């Protein structure tokens, strides 16, 4: 007898986001399980003017998308969601539902639908607590209690997050730690990447190259990296990729500091070349909105020592081990961050040993093969 799994994600591929990538990784992991039938349910990721109800196929798996007519506090709102989810549950009759949380709107209708499917088991992939939206945090407390009570298992990306989460820490016996995984194919090194990396090293001209990757939002902490740069000499290069609502503000903060370069969105080839050519990977996130740090794991995969801040309840300090794979600084302390960069820059042996340990940690813990086995073990044995 086969296994039926319904996946509920906020959005889904081709939408590009951390949660969506993990949702797809789970689907791909379960495709290798014999007689496992899967269905994905999500909001349409188009703008409210362009959004529509639709169905398509991704990786040979059917995806149902619901029209979003508005967004409130980053939460999509859909008039058709409840009806279409109920129909999907009744028609597909899943043995297991995997819900990616936070998704308060979707959770409301899922809990309703599950009342008529009492034998369906629920796995909640708890990506993070609602922290920033104070009103939503209070408003959805009752929903969170019901969701946790209905869940057979709750997936966390690190033991740190289980301990630091207001919700997961109350039910440790229900929690299963499954770390996120890097996309090794996306990080593959080829001749083009090697050539570009060599060009970059020539451009750096013997300076210590520091690389930071991520969206320009407050919790990513880029302002502290820029402040740290101001405390360093001219024999450094600080490259920052990405963009976001704080880009202009960050550029203003860095004005006059020629070490800091804003690269914008870069191609996969350029990113891999930058990761190859840099000396230190800077990951200055400051709140547990950074639940894990996938970009951090990617930087470490390239054998680069990382510099991070201490974040209570975040997986960042589970990915980067202080004194082993990199250095950890008191939260938001720009001076300490500059000192950590300076220490690594001055000690090539330490950079090499920590970089090797960083790569080994990622290969041993954060690859797709490990993730796939963890997911398969959880779902098949539930």
Characterization of the model:
This protein is of the alpha/beta class. The chain folds into 2 domains: 3-181 and 367-381, 3-Layer(aba) Sandwich (Rossmann fold), CATH 3.40.50.2000; 191-365, Glycogen Phosphorylase B (Rossmann fold, 3-Layer(aba) Sandwich), CATH 3.40.50. The protein has helices at residues 18-30, 81-92, 104-114, 134-139, 141-150, 159-164, 191-204, 222-229, 247-253, 268-277, 294-301, 316-319, 334-346, 348-365, 368-381, and strands at 3-8, 36-43, 54-58, 61-66, 70-72, 75-77, 96-101, 121-126, 153-156, 175-177, 208-212, 236-241, 260-264, 280-283, 306-309, 326-329. The strands form 3 sheets. The chain has an 8-stranded mixed beta sheet with strand order 3-4-2-1-7-8-9-10, with helices on both faces. The longest helix has 18 residues, at 348-365.
